[in-house]
């Protein structure tokens, strides 16, 4: 039985290490958008290259995050967590030294592999290390401090871009890793490796990531001037074939990474459809808004980062209360109202143009956006956990988290194509502004679809279902992860 107490020195070291490790990945998921215009100017990158700078990371992270948790179960959670931190730091160093967009994109894909190892690993270490009486509080602190990291991310990223330079957005991870790894090896206990029944589905993970990569390539390449239609078509077909192969592999493996029978729960299927809608809109919104504020409104990177803080701050402050309210009202109402508020916020963003005033034009939209995310994120997680058997809650959360990330990366790939952004659009404020004005109604419509699905399909869970341990959450790119509850 795990016996580390939260009040002990070792308990504090475990919490410090896991927060530090997960914050590396959390920061990168929020700060890179702010750095994109400067990266593009410095490296002479097209808009497609900037899309890949975001999506290369998300492809490998979304495709491999379930496998990352399985590796920890099989080979030891501390071992895989440390490997993830080292891998992430090495890839970050390569990002920071990248001489051209191609190297940066490849390094971002490698970063995503490290993120897939350390993100579930940090939570699994807490679950496996702390005494059952302290576990929920430890997870809550881990989640809360991670939310603070997400809130600091855009501000820190903007300061680094305007100050030392965009490369330090990535290079900062190296000293953090040099601090994290020795502490983990000295103070964090290793959990049992070789746990019976651990899922280890490499083929499924590779096929899933390949499907995402090929479909993303087809969407991004189709938006380029003079694109190769044959390459786009072959990539799209290849992505569909890989997706079909992934489904077939998961259906026939004895111990699949993503068991198809988990979707026998209509509630689980419904809430994941809602997740796909809302996080597709969120992914497109935060990618384009960081560019809009700098390219069109004339904000510096620091000003753009600070401008986005209210949304994360509201989530961090009120997500726990939102979850408690949803426990009383049921998830249907907040999962309907939340996306509608976010849809309204995206329409309010149409006011953000050249020389936009922050208090008049930007802040109202972000406050409404934050209120909508507060309303929906905690009930979304609670409904995911309540829709499956308690023994599969950790798996259900991982699937939901991966679905959100996949939806975001598809949106980042598709929106420039749907709105007619050319490869150089982010260099021409008037062109980008016009495309942004076409993108926001699309994102808003996707959110309305999510609200309709929630109203039509989501029902109140039955009694005795599992409740989330991550009460506070500040990450705008994905819902919180919930781990398996270890035996006491």
Automatic annotation (TrEMBL):
> Which Gene Ontology molecular function entries are recorded, alphabetically?
transmembrane transporter activity
Region annotated Disordered sits at: 466-488
The organism encoding this protein is Streptomyces collinus (strain DSM 40733 / Tue 365)
Q: Which GO terms describe its cellular component?
A: plasma membrane
The cellular location(s) given in this protein's UniProt record come to:
Cell membrane
Indicate where this protein is primarily found. Answer: membrane
Gene3D superfamilies per UniProt: MFS general substrate transporter like domains, Multidrug resistance protein D
Keyword line: Antibiotic resistance, Cell membrane, Membrane, Transmembrane, Transmembrane helix, Transport
Which GO biological process categories is it annotated with? response to antibiotic
Q: How does it sit in the membrane?
A: Multi-pass membrane protein
Q: Which domain of life is it from?
A: Bacteria
Start and end residues of each Major facilitator superfamily (MFS) profile domain: 14-462
What InterPro entries does UniProt report for this protein, alphabetically?
EmrB-like, MFS, MFS_dom, MFS_trans_sf
| Protein name per Swiss-Prot or TrEMBL | Transmembrane efflux protein
Q: Which PANTHER family match?
A: EXPORT PROTEIN, MAJOR FACILITATOR SUPERFAMILY MULTIDRUG TRANSPORTER MFSC
Where does the sequence pass through the membrane?
12-36, 48-68, 80-99, 105-126, 138-160, 166-188, 200-220, 232-249, 270-291, 297-320, 332-350, 362-386, 398-419, 439-458
CDD domains reported for this sequence: MFS_MMR_MDR_like
